Amino acid sequence: MSERVTGPGEPTLEDLRQRLVDFAAARRWQPFHTPKNLAAALSVEAGELLEIFQWLTPEQAAAVMAEPERAHRVRDEVADVLAYLLQFCTAVGVEPLEALAAKIERNELRFPVPDGPADVDGSD
Amino acid sequence: MSERVTGPGEPTLEDLRQRLVDFAAARRWQPFHTPKNLAAALSVEAGELLEIFQWLTPEQAAAVMAEPERAHRVRDEVADVLAYLLQFCTAVGVEPLEALAAKIERNELRFPVPDGPADVDGSD
Amino acid sequence: MSERVTGPGEPTLEDLRQRLVDFAAARRWQPFHTPKNLAAALSVEAGELLEIFQWLTPEQAAAVMAEPERAHRVRDEVADVLAYLLQFCTAVGVEPLEALAAKIERNELRFPVPDGPADVDGSD
Amino acid sequence: MSERVTGPGEPTLEDLRQRLVDFAAARRWQPFHTPKNLAAALSVEAGELLEIFQWLTPEQAAAVMAEPERAHRVRDEVADVLAYLLQFCTAVGVEPLEALAAKIERNELRFPVPDGPADVDGSD
User: Is A71 exposed, middle or buried (0-12, 13-18, 19+ CB in 10 A)?
Assistant: First the structure.
């Protein structure tokens, strides 16, 4: 799509978005992949990610990846959220990286960096 | 970070993840960016995306991007979901593209492509 | 609103709210029942209710209670949502029926009943 | 459970459920009130309640009702969650208090009260 050099085994977001399109097409799941259904599924999966953390103390939450079974669940839910987000973007024709870059630019104007020692002491 | 050639204005997911790290650091927001808070924020934003669609008929939902104000809201919420997902991944040390690639592979085993005319009539 | 005498075996919302308080106290779960944790749990359970419907067509969704296993899941998730809502209300000291009555009154002002044949043809 | 006589101005859950039915009917909103749409709306509102808490420290969250504007938002979102839950129950024919009572009974079997001083010292 673009003149991008990536090594094998390093898929880009666009590569994975296309794999998800092919995956759904091969299984004839497209009729279910309406924008509304995909937005619902995205919300459900985000809830499943939150579920892992709902009763954890801050200390337990910070150590969540030290426990293999929980770490697997976290990676699995991250994947599900990203998958439905990409499938939603396909369904409505939104380019997710462009949307995020534009939002960061708006936020840089909306939340100016405060003056003072923040810059000096290396916080960026 | 990697030997990837991308043109100007074509940020990768990793570029944007790093920009979000810098953005939060410059504003000293990191103390708020715990895994639990970010999982909650991700879920909240996914709900805001779903809100756009909750009362729409399938026809209205399919035409959502034809209406400029709604299209802007959709792009904005997609960006928010992706931003919090990337910030969550930073907080727990998960590589989102790896997590998704691994999940797609598990799903290819879990949901085999059905036999029959699916391949023939072009559904992939 | 009406004079109502409730007999035994017909618990009120307040009865169930109190039973949930006792249930958590007996199991020493109160330290986990912070407003923030309970708001997260409520959101997670609402997601689980939505999950039942996410891929259903309108026809399938309308018939959801005809299928015993799904009907049980629906009742179970309704109960979970209501339980966490009541526990949240306990944690923050909100009276849910008062809050809802006040909201309905605000909405009656905000969304006036349209003129015309709506009243005539029996829609209230 | 107890013999209770409710006077005027103390609506029961069922009174409010019925008022919501009348409210929607008068405005001809029933076609939108499908089980799937209402489950989505419930999830969206639960997210809005969580939003109030997402960046708060435990101390700030505990004091949320001391700040009048936030306290109003909390009551408002509690009302919205309860409203959509009741409307969902209407749409699928579930009796919410029965569903919750049955769930509490299942949970009493599933999570037995631990032995020891918990009952004696007042289940603190």
Answer: middle
User: What ipTM was assigned to the predicted interfaces of this complex?
Assistant: 0.88
The answer to whether residues A65 and B93 touch, using CB atoms and an 8 Å cutoff, is: yes
- pLDDT for residue B10: 85
| Residue D29 confidence (pLDDT) | 96
> Which residues of D are less than 8 Å from A43 in CB distance?
40, 43-44, 47
Query: For residue A55, which residues of chain C lie inside 8 Å, CB to CB?
Result: 32, 37, 41
Q: What is the DSSP string of B53-103?
A: HTT--HHHHHTGGGSHHHHHHHHHHHHHHHHHHHHHHHHHT--HHHHHHHH
Chain C: closest CA distance from residue A43 (Å)? 7
- Tell me the residues of A at the D interface, defined by beta carbons under 8 Å apart: 40, 43-44, 47
User: Å from A40 to nearest chain D CA?
Assistant: 7
Q: What is the mean pLDDT of residues A19-23?
A: 98
E-state strands within chain D: 4-6
Residues pairing with C4 in the sheet: D6
Structure tokens at D104: 């509490």
Predicted confidence (pLDDT) per residue in C87-103, tens digit: 999 999 999 999 999 99
Q: CA quadruple A37, A38, A39, A44: dihedral positive or negative?
A: positive
Chains touching D, CB cut-off 8 Å, 3+ pairs: A, B, C
Query: Hey, are the CB atoms on D43 and B50 less than 8 Å from each other?
Result: yes
Top pLDDT among B119 and B56 is at B56
Q: To the nearest whole angstrom, how far is the Cα of B84 from the nearest Cα of chain C? A: 16
pLDDT tens-place string over residues D10-22: 899 999 999 999 9
Which secondary-structure segment (H or E) carries A52? helix A35-53
What confidence category does residue B115 fall into, taking pLDDT thresholds of 50, 70 and 90? confident
